[in-house]
Design brief:
Helix 1 packs antiparallel against helix 4. The protein is elongated and about 50 Å long. The chain is built from 6 helices and 3 strands. It is α+β, with helices and mostly antiparallel strands. The chain has a single domain, classed as Arc Repressor Mutant, subunit A (Orthogonal Bundle). One of its GO terms (molecular function) is DNA-binding transcription factor activity.
Length: 127
């Protein structure tokens, strides 16, 4: 029996992109709608009640995070249409995953986060 391969831990930047992308209710609705079926921008905009420019901005962010993929197709009338669909993804979010991801963060807007390997806090220390 072959051991099942585990997906590699996400880098800090990748995890931050995914969490940022999903941290918006509009983008969560877009992912939910695309889970049901792939769609093109105009039809998706009508379906979820959002203007095309705003939807396009959200789709670009979701695509950059690897949560949706877009593909250009030529319609019967000769027009090029970009269809979007959900990309297969599975992200496990645990304290250990976050701990490892922080080590690879390059986005330091809040200042660098450094793991202190010499100090261990216990429940007794916190009292």
């Amino acid at each position: 029996m072959m051991a099942e391969e585990q997906a590699p831990e996400p880098t800090g930047d990748k995890l931050l992109k995914v969490l940022t992308a999903l941290g918006n209710p509009h983008r969560m609705r877009i992912v939910a709608a695309l889970t049901e079926r792939r769609n093109y921008v105009s039809a998706l905009a009508r379906e979820i009640g959002m203007g095309r420019p705003l939807l396009h901005m959200h789709l670009k962010l979701l695509e950059g995070a690897g949560l949706v993929v877009g593909s250009l197709e030529v319609a019967d009338d000769g027009k090029t249409v970009k269809y979007f669909e959900v990309a297969p993804f599975l992200h496990e979010l645990t304290p250990a995953v976050i701990h490892e991801a922080v080590r690879t963060l390059t986005d330091t807007r809040e200042g660098p986060v450094k793991a202190d390997k010499t100090t261990h806090t216990t429940k007794e220390d916190a009292k």
